[in-house]
Structure formats: C-alpha cells, structure tokens
Design brief:
Strand content: 5-15%
Largest sheet: 5 strands, parallel
Number of helices: 17
CATH superfamily of the largest domain: P-loop containing nucleotide triphosphate hydrolases
Distance between the termini: 52 Å
Structural class: alpha/beta
Number of domains: 2
CATH architecture of the largest domain: 3-Layer(aba) Sandwich
Strand order of the largest sheet: 2-5-8-1-9
Helix content: 40-55%
Order of helices and strands: HEHEHEEHEHEEEHEHHHHHHHHHHH
Radius of gyration: 23 Å
CATH topology of the largest domain: Rossmann fold
CATH class of the largest domain: Alpha Beta
C-alpha cells in the first residue's frame, strides 16, 4: 500500500535513518519525497546521482598554502544554509561505482568534502531495479548496508482510484497522525528498550548478527550490526507513532531482510520488556523470570544503557541492585557482561550497596571512578 510505504518513509526521516525507495520508473517516488518534505516543513535538496562526479560528494580539491582542502558543492552548502533538511539522492542505482564510493561518507557521516552537514539533515534515495534502469548498476554492499530499503509498490486499484478521484485522499495519514512535526536531533523515544529487545533476540540467534550476501542485486536489507541498530531505532519511532504492524514489518525488512525480520517480529510478540525508567525507580520491584534468560538480557541491557547515559549516582546504584538480583537469580553470565560496563561508568562518589558487593565481589576489585 502507498500509505504504508509513505508512513514508513516518514518514520525513517524522524529516526534519522537513511532510506532508499525501490521501484520502477514513473510510479511517483520523487513526487512522494517532495510531498513529505513539504508536509514536514523541511528544505529539500535534490541531487541526481546519475549525472554527478565523485568530486560532487568527496569535494573538489584545491590548494591552500602547503596543504590541500576539499571544496563542497553548491547543493551541500545550500543544506548548511537552511540548517538541514532532506537530501534526496535520486537515480542512485545509475551512479557508477566511483560515485557510489564517494557517497559513502556523506550518507553515513554527513560530511561532504570538508563540510559537515547539520545534524538535522536526513537522507532519502530513490532507485530503479537494475533491470529497469538506463545503464543501471548494482549497489555496492557497503552502500546498500547504509539504507533501510522500502519497495514502492503501486497496485492497479490505487492507480485507478488516484486517476479517477485524485491522489491526495490515498496519500494522507489516518486521523491523528502528526504530519507537521519538525525533525530535530533530540533523540529517539524508547530507543534503549527497543535496542535491548533486539539485542536479546540476537543473544538467542547469534548466527543472525552478520549475514552478508556475496553480491547485492536489489535484495533489500541484510543483517549486520549497523542494520540491526537501524532496525532498533526505527522500531522505537514506529511504536511511538503507533504504526500498524504492516508499516513496522516494512521497516524491519528494509533493514535486515525478510527472513531475519520475520524471526525478530515473532520473537518480539512474545517479549514483554518493562521500561528501563520503571526498573531504575524500583530495582527490587521486577519479578525476574527464572526461565527467560532472553528477557532478563533485554531488561538488563536497556536499564544499564539508561543508567550510564543519565550518569547520576542514584541511577548507577539502582542499576547495581538490579545486577545483584540478576546474579542471585542464576543469570551470572548476563550480570557479568553488564557489570563490566557498570564498573567502568561508576560516577565519582557513588558506592554500591552491600548486596551488590557480595554478588559481584570478584568483579569489583578493579573498579575505578569515571574520569
């Protein structure tokens, strides 16, 4: 459905995850990107990748005294002048390998030549499958792994209805969807819980952490540590927007592929992870399940992430109580893995409870305050 793909596209923009739209020519990919930028109130800078040179992304070298600098192109300077927005790399599948290589840093790091793009910059690309492109190329594996891949499917019914009745009703969000929110870099809601859940899944399926195909021919996403993190971020934003299961599936498939996504989503249906804020507020209140090591792993991971990011004595000490309880419950391996981070991140002046000392005593001998 067009509406599902559109919503998935906006989730990627909000989560700051580069996204690529795959579809044959003439199905409205470019028009959709323009409409989304307008409705979100974002500047749109379109770059036709097929007619660009590597210097348009790596910068044009010029001499400055005894050194060489790299001048950014006009489009990159325009993004800086607007404080960010959407950079739309159109026809990226017709960019030759040298141009694809030059695109790696702008897409991943937001750096063009010697110019750093604003943090509020978001990346969208569009591509035709190689068999429908004019002189198309396969995406390189490093470039493909930087995107969430969305397939732009248009059904005959949607085309007929759009021509007869107009496209706008089909393109709008359901009532209550916020299409005017501004994109910023304040973070992703519930990111720790989502990443903890993904980590718990990979704890049970370590063989899915990295599955790199031998070549890339429009196969969508594939599992790597980077794409799993992308999936976790998108999952957090999609849940905060109350997206439908169909939209969430599109996003996860777009990051790690259909097979891995199916397993993750099935796993998440059976995983009930309490919010890390709740755990830190009452580390003794959570009933530790004796037969769910994966759930314990997810809770400890998300709680430890929140505690270290807050950096307060209270959060650190509460996390220590949770680790002690986990160790006492028999999940020594989980407590051991998390305790190394916990020890390293000890705020100055923070002291673990006696219970924590007894449970983790072998690991605490090398504890040092965080500098």
């Amino acid at each position: 459905m067009i509406a599902d793909t559109r919503e998935a596209l906006v989730v990627c923009v909000e989560a700051a995850i580069p996204v690529i739209l795959w579809g044959p020519p003439g199905v409205g990919k470019s028009s959709m990107v323009s409409a989304v930028a307008t409705e979100l109130g974002l500047h749109l800078e379109t770059v036709i990748a097929s007619i660009r040179e590597p210097s348009d992304f790596a910068g044009l070298p010029f001499r400055v005294g005894s050194s060489v600098a790299f001048a950014p192109p006009r489009w990159a300077q325009a993004v800086v002048d607007h404080g960010g927005g959407i950079v739309f790399y159109d026809e990226i599948s017709t960019a030759p390998p040298a141009v694809q290589a030059a695109l790696l840093r702008p897409i991943l790091d937001g750096v063009v030549g010697d110019l750093e793009l604003p943090k509020a910059t978001r990346t969208i690309a569009a591509a035709n499958p190689p068999d429908t492109s004019a002189g198309g190329w396969e995406l390189s594996l490093p470039l493909a792994n930087r995107f969430c891949h969305l397939v732009w499917d248009v059904s005959p019914h949607e085309v007929a209805r759009g021509l007869a009745l107009g496209w706008e009703p089909e393109m709008n969000y359901e009532s209550g969807k916020d299409m005017t929110a501004k994109v910023d870099d304040t973070g992703v809601p519930d990111i720790r819980a989502s990443l903890g859940a993904v980590g718990a899944f990979l704890h049970t399926r370590p063989d899915l952490v990295l599955v790199v195909p031998t070549s890339y021919a429009h196969e969508g996403g594939f599992p790597t540590p980077r794409s799993w993190e992308m999936a976790g971020r998108l999952l957090a934003v999609a849940r905060s927007r109350a997206c439908s299961p169909a939209v969430i599936r599109k996003l996860i498939v777009g990051c790690v592929g259909a097979g891995a996504a199916t397993e993750l989503l099935y796993y998440l249906e059976r995983l009930d992870v309490p919010a890390p804020e709740v755990i830190l507020a009452d580390p003794d209140g959570w009933e530790i399940p004796s037969q769910r090591g994966d759930l314990v792993y997810a809770v400890v991971s998300s709680t430890m992430s929140l505690a270290t990011s807050e950096g307060t004595r209270e959060s650190w000490e509460a996390a220590g109580v949770l680790l002690a309880r986990v160790a006492e419950a028999g999940f020594v391996d989980v407590a051991y893995d998390a305790s190394r981070t916990w020890i390293r991140e000890r705020p100055e002046g923070a002291l673990p409870a006696t219970r924590t000392l007894l449970a983790l005593q072998p690991l605490l001998t090398g504890a040092r305050p965080k500098a």
